[in-house]
Protein 1
Amino acid sequence: MLGVDGCRAGWAAVRINLYDNSVSGFMAAAFTDILAIADAAMIMVDMPIGLADTGPRACEVMARKRLSPLRHASVFSPPRRKMLSFSRYEDANGWGKKNDGKGLSRQAWMIAPKIREIDEAVTPEDQIRLGEAHPEVAFSRLNDDEPCAHPKRTAEGQAERRALLARAGIADAERIYESLRKQHGAKAIARDDVYDACALVLTAKARLDGSAIRLSDDARDARGLVMEIWG
């Protein structure tokens, strides 16, 4: 099972071995490298899969409601599908305001290359073992269905999330982060990238055993991808 989060150097992944429950981390340069891991029974990634032509996706609305009032701002609106065709933020933002009544945040535009990378690699058939997941939804499930009290980049938030991961069986989140940081450099990966990937691999495990949260209205996008968020 894999939990995957985008990072500066590519993709940060945390793996749980189904046979002995051992936990390890690694980095991948491209998302196709993640998909090529044939023995991954379930993969959860913190990146939009399935893009609406217009308007918000229902799964985002559901995620914000679940995380309100503390962590709802962590759920951002991804680009509408047409926006991926633009090479400049100003053009994508302008298209949204003119044609859909809403522009695009800078945050969403910054990860547009990774959204495009996934969109070009994934097929509807892949969603049998691949899902979009949101780390804060995942942490809320680990926290007895309550959103985390502190932002993830604060010392309090990091301690809170480490405790939740440890309670759920991943006591080595910090060790995994330090190992990847040592291998790839401090600028390649952030602590919250690894903590989020740890939460997502637990979501992968929960999806396999039927205990994961699924937020969706079962709508599909123009490519036939189901728009859903797991946690």
Protein 2
Amino acid sequence: MSAREPILNVPRAVTLAAGLMVAVQVAMSVLPFDTGVRVFLTLAMIPARYTGGGAEIPGGYIAAITSFVTYMIVHGGWLHLLVNVLWMLAFGTAVARRVPLSSFFAFSILCGIAGALTHLVFHWGDMAPMVGASAAISGQMAAALRFIFFARSGPHGEIPDFAHVPLASLSETLRSGKVMGFIVFWLVLNAYFGMTSMSFGTGPDSEIAWEAHIGGFLCGLLVFGYFDRARSGPDVERVR
């Protein structure tokens, strides 16, 4: 008898990332309210830090540097966290199967920083905090688009081994009708979120940082090739 397959075969990198975000959310939930707010603001990306208000905002000038990374591990509530974890399971898993753990985190952090910089440009001086891993996961999604649509299923309809599908070039990716259809749908969805101020956060004034999503996505699309080390296997066919 063959060994049983696990119900959820999640890469270690994705498990660690999700575990860190859940642990932070649990800690935020049990902290006294005032302390929790201070920790939240210290970790969050707040554009006003860079217009002379850094000393007055929790975290001070040190957080003006660290928040480019720390904002990714804190979320606006359990629903916000759940959406991001599910999103990461869908696309981050495919990416994590192709690259070493260190490369997965370096790539994701780079996309998150790109998202934060994009948000900063569009919201210069704003006091509203931005939190969540959405920009980093948008980069993971963009990376996945460079290989998930370029593989055939197995001989009996099995899911392709995405870990060994050759990475498409940027021009091949943008010429794919499937990829471009997915990108257009995703951009329209983000535009809808931006126009309707739809939110997954807990506060009434929280909004989806769609500009950060696009910044992270573009970064992931452009730079993933520098991190990808997958080699095609003998049983993988490219879509012609």
Protein 3
Amino acid sequence: MNLPKSPPPVVTAQTPSGSTHIRSFVHRRAHITPSQEQAIAEWLPRWSIRYQDTPLDLAAAFGCPAPVILEIGFGMGETTQKIAQARPGDNFLGVEVFNAGVGALLKRIHENALDNVRIIQHDAVEVLRDMIAPGSLAGVHIYFPDPWPKKRHHKRRLIQPAFIELLSSRMAPGAYLHCATDWEHYAQQMLEVLSAAPSLQNTCADYAPRPDYRPLTKFENRGLRLGHGVWDLIFTRRAPTDAASAPEAT
């Protein structure tokens, strides 16, 4: 089947936000396969949610009330698919901007009959700010975000204090935030930023063992074989009274 050529990766917002913020992505030219294009053409209307500047009714969006786990930057969707299959009682909201990744996850949703996954193709910061009501998330996954390895680019990293303050406000008390990276310096920054957030509490002394629900991807397995490290961090949202009394980070 001949399909029209896919446009370059886009951000769906067309109006200025009125303030600047770190975006959850960087524009890149990405190859998209014909099957990914076909998946977008056929399945995007069924499994995606359009960006809107008002809070989203999560139960209505999924068709059932269930704990909602937000995944920021799901890449090609391999991990999203496996976790959603293993946890059918949870709903998973994946946020990604790139067409190739969106098309790949749409294929996985269709081929595996996953009814507990939805996609928003938009900048995650604006999705959090505008679409996710405070205290509504049961969990958040941020796996292998862009490490921006050059020192002059560290300010572009997603895990920054202002972003974590916004993110934690959308988490229910007791909800978890699970980050993973294969860049040690970024892991150190993540640990520092998350530990300094008064609303969050580390579940471990520092880094966490990889939980069973996070599968190893083929790229991660290859890195481990080459001796590369991977660091997981799992924090939970304190109850408001606990956050108010939490000691300040020094």
